[in-house]
Design goal:
The structure is a single chain. The chain is an alpha/beta fold and 253 residues long. 36% of the residues lie in helices and 17% in strands. Strands 1, 2, 3, 4, 5, 6, 7 and 8 form an 8-stranded mixed β-sheet that branches. A hairpin with a 2-residue loop joins strand 6 and strand 7. Helix 1 runs antiparallel to helix 2. One of its GO terms (biological process) is phosphatidic acid biosynthetic process. Pathway: Lipid metabolism. Keywords: Acyltransferase, Lipid biosynthesis, Lipid metabolism, Transferase.
Length: 253
């Protein structure tokens, strides 16, 4: 566990200075380095990624990746797979160390305070206009990993942005611990929710190896209204997550 922590710090110190330079330059390298970084972190932390499906792209439009959320580890697993910037709650910007990594990954922080919504919306719209894809968690918080919580329609306002983004559902479920199926009793070792602190959670998590199954779904029609879109995405991802928790394979369509 300590060896993993030391390796994580070393890997971060190796790539962080490079990314902090790249984010101020033009070009696509600043979008590729986070994928490399999180892939390395996943290997260091003993997380095997099992990915089904493909990234939605038409070569021109950005993508809104809409995912369920049960753990801080989702950032690692999805960051290694999805070429996009996370949209995260503003308090993360105040976490020592983590905030620097998040900023280097070009994370957009949202406070959800009424006076800041206009500026935060503009930040996200500017990213989409520049061709950046975004990764959203419409639940607004983490779950216990045994269910998908209600998707909030306000998070999906960007689906009708002038950049006309592709909306792609993404389902993530942790289904194995040390090569064995995860049962309800073991989910708190991987899910991070409620008043859990990250240090004690890592103390449990870091002793084991995990498998994260990620399903990149078929893009959905965003022109159905925010509430209908939220309900559609929630139903799709909840169904897919239940299937993965039961150990069943992804079904196309």
């Amino acid at each position: 566990m300590l060896a993993r922590l030391v390796a994580f710090i070393g890997w971060t110190l190796a790539l962080l200075p490079i990314q902090l330079v790249l984010i101020n330059l033009s070009g696509t390298a600043k979008r590729r380095i986070p994928l490399l970084y999180w892939s390395g972190v996943a290997r260091i932390l003993g997380v095997k990624l099992d990915v089904t499906g493909t990234i939605a792209t038409d070569g021109a439009r950005p993508v809104l990746f809409i995912a369920n959320h049960s753990s801080w580890l989702d950032i690692v697993a999805l960051g290694a797979v999805l070429p996009g910037c996370f949209v995260a709650k503003g308090e993360i910007a105040r976490w020592p160390g983590i905030n620097l990594v998040a900023k280097a990954g070009r994370t957009i922080f949202v406070s959800r305070r009424h006076g800041n919504t206009g500026r935060e919306r503009n930040d996200m719209q500017n990213r989409l206009a520049a061709g950046d894809s975004l990764i959203l968690f419409p639940e607004g918080t983490t779950s216990d990993g045994a269910r998908v919580m209600k998707f909030h329609a306000t998070f999906l306002a960007l689906a009708n942005d002038p950049s006309n983004p592709i909306v792609q559902p993404v389902t993530i479920v942790y289904d194995q611990m040390d090569g064995l199926p995860i049962c309800r009793r073991n989910r708190p070792r991987i899910a991070w929710y409620g008043d859990m602190d990250i240090a004690s959670h890592y103390a449990q998590f870091g002793r084991h190896n995990w498998r994260a199954r990620i399903v990149l779904g078929t893009p959905v029609d965003a022109n159905i209204g925010r509430k209908a879109l939220a309900a559609d995405l929630e139903s799709h991802i909840a169904t897919e997550a239940a299937r993965l928790r039961q150990g069943r394979s992804h079904q196309a369509g």
